[in-house]
């Protein structure tokens, strides 16, 4: 009799466990992320460019910030700046290409703030040069940062959100060159292709198991940051964006929107969407367009800095959001705004379509 009672109790416990698991999965079918002022946000590559702009914007909106990068002087200056404004922030000196360093970022967030709610994989560095000229050692080291750093951050963030049981946001910063290959930055494009593939794959796996993780891929176009100055250059002339680009604050806006609202993808800039769309629809035509435009718009007329002065192996200079690029810098992206307000955008487009149709009818009468 006692054995029968134990078996009945075991079955009841198993049924209860199954119910709890199903209820848990149901909760995560529609993820509800915390408001930004309630969040702890981890940002890699936070000492300059997009990461720096995102850290400042997140802190200004009430989030607690864990800033990570290799440049300790810049990180200390950033955290002192944020704290002087009444914000809560800590920093971690970390090379994201080293898994133990990435683990320390998470440990610091846990120790200082009890965990984190959004993890932004932003750290990256580029290499400018023809593919056949770039040293294999440089390629491998760049992949450690641009791809493996994202893998390490992803695995740590996902485990944290699963263990905690409260939905969180994983935000990976891709590139327009992760959707379409390019010349001169072939190694960078390859690493971003890998990042995009990784992000799409883990997103599907996590959705299948109804894990409490929102996975967003940001697709920035050309952004006015020190990215080019930090890059390794095999060119005679200094890498630079020449033409239309966007401020890093535009990308930061997209990142922080994704921190509160689950989104699959956010394109920052029409150029990013253009390359992704037409690269699929007319790949051969896009080959010719890139060959025609990208050689002359990825450098200016200054002599290139020596490769030894790049940020591939050592930290680059910090506390600069903007770079030394040449062209028209826009402070707003229509694609980001459309992503943030899809209903209003759809209604506006419908209104425009209706107006055009009405005018066409009027002309035909």
TrEMBL record:
Protein name: SDR family NAD(P)-dependent oxidoreductase
GO MF term list: oxidoreductase activity
SMART domains attached to this UniProt entry: PKS_KR (SM00822)
Biased composition (Basic and acidic residues): 297-310
Residue intervals of the Ketoreductase domain: 39-226
Source species of the chain: Metabacillus lacus
InterPro entries named among the record's database cross-references: KR_dom, NAD(P)-bd_dom_sf, Sc_DH/Rdtase_CS, SDR_fam
Ranges for region Disordered: 297-318
GO cellular component terms, semicolon-separated: membrane
Keywords: Oxidoreductase
């Amino acid at each position: 009799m006692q054995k029968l009672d134990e078996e009945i109790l075991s079955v009841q416990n198993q049924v209860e466990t199954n119910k709890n698991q199903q209820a848990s999965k149901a909760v995560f079918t529609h993820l509800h992320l915390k408001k930004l002022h309630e969040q702890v946000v981890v940002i890699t590559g936070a000492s300059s460019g997009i990461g720096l702009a995102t850290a400042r914007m997140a802190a200004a909106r009430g989030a607690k910030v864990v800033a990570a990068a290799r440049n300790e002087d810049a990180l200390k200056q950033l955290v002192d700046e944020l704290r002087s404004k009444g914000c809560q922030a800590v920093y971690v000196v970390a090379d994201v290409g080293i898994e133990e360093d990435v683990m320390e970022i998470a440990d610091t967030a846990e120790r200082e703030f009890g965990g984190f709610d959004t993890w932004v994989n932003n750290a990256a560095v580029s290499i400018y040069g023809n593919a056949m000229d770039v040293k294999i050692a440089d390629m491998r080291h760049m992949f450690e940062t641009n791809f493996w750093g994202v893998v390490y951050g992803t695995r740590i963030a996902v485990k944290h959100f699963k263990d905690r049981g409260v939905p969180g946001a994983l935000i990976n910063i891709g590139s327009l060159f992760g959707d379409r290959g390019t010349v001169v930055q072939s190694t960078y494009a390859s690493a971003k292709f890998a990042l995009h593939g990784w992000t799409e794959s883990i997103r599907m796996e996590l959705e299948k198991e109804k894990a409490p993780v929102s996975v967003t891929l940001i697709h920035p176009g050309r952004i006015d940051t020190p990215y080019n100055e930090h890059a390794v250059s095999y060119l005679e002339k200094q890498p630079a964006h020449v033409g239309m680009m966007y401020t890093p604050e535009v990308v930061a806006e997209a990142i922080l929107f994704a921190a509160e609202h689950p989104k699959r993808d956010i394109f920052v800039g029409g150029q990013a969407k253009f390359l992704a769309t037409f690269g699929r629809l007319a790949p051969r035509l896009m080959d010719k367009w890139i060959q025609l435009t990208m050689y002359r718009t990825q450098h200016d007329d200054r002599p290139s800095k020596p490769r030894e002065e790049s940020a591939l192996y050592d930290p680059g200079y910090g506390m600069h959001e903007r770079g030394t690029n040449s062209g028209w810098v826009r402070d707003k992206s229509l694609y980001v705004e459309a992503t943030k307000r899809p209903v209003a955008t759809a209604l506006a487009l419908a209104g425009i379509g209706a107006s055009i149709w009405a005018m066409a009818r009027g002309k035909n009468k």
